[in-house]
Amino acid sequence: MKFVFTKHAIEKFEELGRLGWRVTRVKIKKTIQKPKWRGISRHGQETAMSLVDPKHIIRVVFNREDGIIKIITFHIARRGKYESTL
């Protein structure tokens, strides 16, 4: 499985780092491969979520096409906002 990060997703690593969140490409890939929760964004894209700490999740928005997973964006959110059992 090949992972491709959009320019926006790459910029999110630095942006979240400035806010004190250490997120790695490995964490993003693991979240997609073994999410705690799955969902669909309001734009119809797949989402995968996993815990960052007891109060926060990381939510990854991505598309799958021809064996390639394209990471659109990701962000940290408080638990309860996006969690689902899809």
General description of the model:
- By secondary structure, the chain is α+β, with helices and mostly antiparallel strands.
- It has one domain (2-78): YaeB-like fold, CATH 3.30.2310.
- The protein is built from two helices and five strands; from the N terminus they run E-H-H-E-E-E-E.
- The protein has helices spanning 7-18, 25-33, and strands at 2-5, 37-40, 46-53, 56-65, 68-78.
- Strands 1-5-4-3-2 form a five-stranded mixed beta sheet.
Q: Could you give the order of strands across the largest sheet?
A: 1-5-4-3-2
Whole-number total of structural domains:
1
Radius of gyration: 12 Å
Q: What helical percentage do the residues reach?
A: 10-25%
Number of helices: 2
Give the uncertain stretches in residue-range form. none
Structural class: alpha+beta
- At CATH level 2, the architecture is 2-Layer Sandwich
Average pLDDT score: 93
List strands and helices in order, with pairings.
Layout: E1 2-5, H1 7-18, H2 25-33, E2 37-40, E3 46-53, E4 56-65, E5 68-78
Parallel strand pairs: 1-5
Antiparallel strand pairs: 2-3, 3-4, 4-5
Short description:
The chain has 86 residues and is an alpha+beta fold. It has helices spanning 7-18, 25-33; strands at residues 2-5, 37-40, 46-53, 56-65, 68-78. It has one domain (2-78): YaeB-like fold (2-Layer Sandwich).
